[in-house]
């Protein structure tokens, strides 16, 4: 089945220790998104790629970076995680202006 | 900037009841509107997508409507079941997606 896969599902890191979350897709969609979602809140868009074009949200902290080496893969790097970065991180894909498909998410805990 | 509001924030109904969830948005210049379901600790599952040129979409017991001119969408769930308990989110697409905060639905057996 075509799908969006996120690894790991659960990530525990220490304060200030860099972490990388990964997302892969078999849908061959040209747009990929990273969202941060905290408890009982709406998903907050961090950035998205339209093919290789990177689009950063104005309020996304510099601590968050992303890479998309090819159509199928996208990575979220958190350079120095703080306690406030503990959240669910969601990856999604779509064709332009079309239906979004989400992965299962990665739950990040910062100790 | 697009603002998306979902009312109510939480809803509890007995099993078998028909119910309506509401979504409103401030900018009618959208490409589409999508309804999602989210179970606790999980990702978002797409339920229905309504393109801006459409008025409604149906899937099983779910029916979603879209009125762009008034900036409103509704999700109608027929004959609710305990398995429908989840948070329901709507998202509107302009150049990117804007989400509401969701309605947390509890269907009591």
Largest sheet of chain A: 7 strands, mixed
**Mean pLDDT score of chain A:** 94
Given as residue ranges, the uncertain stretches of chain A (5+ residues, pLDDT < 50) are none
Structural shape of chain B: globular
Percent in helix of chain B: under 10%
β-strand percent of chain A reads over 45%
First-residue to last-residue Cα separation of chain A: 36 Å
Describe it.
The complex is a heterodimer of chains A (111) and B (109). Chain A has strands at residues 4-7, 10-13, 19-25, 31-37, 44-50, 53-56, 64-67, 73-78, 87-94, 101-102, 106-110. With 111 residues, chain A is mainly β. In chain A, the strands form two sheets. In chain A, strands 2, 4, 5, 6, 9, 10 and 11 form a seven-stranded mixed β-sheet that branches. Chain A has a four-stranded antiparallel β-sheet with strand order 1-3-8-7, with no helix packed on it. The mean pLDDT of chain A is 94. Chain B starts with a strand and ends with a strand. The mean pLDDT of chain B is 95. Chain B has 109 residues and is mainly beta. The radius of gyration of chain B is 13 Å and the shape is globular. In chain B, strands 2, 4, 5, 9, 10 and 11 form a six-stranded mixed β-sheet that branches. The A-B interface holds A 6, 33, 40-43, 45, 48, 55, 88, 90, 92, 97-105, 107 and B 4, 31-32, 34, 36, 41-46, 49, 89, 91, 93, 96-97, 99-102, 104.
Which helices and strands appear, and what pairs or packs with what?
The complex is a heterodimer of chains A (111) and B (109).
Chain A: E1 4-7, E2 10-13, E3 19-25, E4 31-37, E5 44-50, E6 53-56, E7 64-67, E8 73-78, E9 87-94, E10 101-102, E11 106-110
Parallel strand pairs in A: 2-11
Antiparallel strand pairs in A: 1-3, 3-8, 4-5, 4-9, 5-6, 7-8, 9-10, 9-11
Chain B: E1 4-7, E2 10-14, E3 19-25, E4 32-38, E5 44-51, E6 56-59, E7 62-67, E8 72-77, E9 86-93, E10 97-99, E11 103-108
Parallel strand pairs in B: 2-11
Antiparallel strand pairs in B: 1-3, 3-8, 4-5, 4-9, 6-7, 7-8, 9-10, 9-11
């Amino acid at each position: 089945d075509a799908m969006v896969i996120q690894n790991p599902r659960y990530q525990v890191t220490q304060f200030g220790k860099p972490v990388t979350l990964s997302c892969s897709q078999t849908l061959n969609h040209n747009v990929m998104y990273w969202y941060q979602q905290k408890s009982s809140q709406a998903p907050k868009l961090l950035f998205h790629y339209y093919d290789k074009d990177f689009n950063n949200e104005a309020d996304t902290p510099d601590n968050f970076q992303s890479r998309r080496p090819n159509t199928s893969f996208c990575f979220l790097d958190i350079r120095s995680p703080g306690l406030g970065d503990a959240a669910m991180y969601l990856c999604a894909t779509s064709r332009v202006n079309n239906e979004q498909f989400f992965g299962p998410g990665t739950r990040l805990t910062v100790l | 900037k697009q603002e998306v509001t979902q009312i109510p924030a939480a809803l509890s109904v007995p099993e078998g009841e028909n119910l309506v969830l509401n979504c409103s948005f401030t900018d009618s210049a959208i490409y589409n509107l999508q309804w999602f379901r989210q179970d606790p600790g999980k990702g978002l599952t797409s339920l229905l997508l309504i393109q801006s040129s459409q008025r409604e979409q149906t899937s099983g017991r779910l029916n979603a409507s879209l009125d762009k001119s008034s900036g409103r969408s509704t999700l109608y769930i027929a004959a609710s079941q305990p398995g429908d308990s989840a948070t329901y989110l709507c998202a509107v697409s302009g150049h990117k997606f804007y989400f509401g905060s969701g309605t947390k639905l509890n269907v009591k057996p």
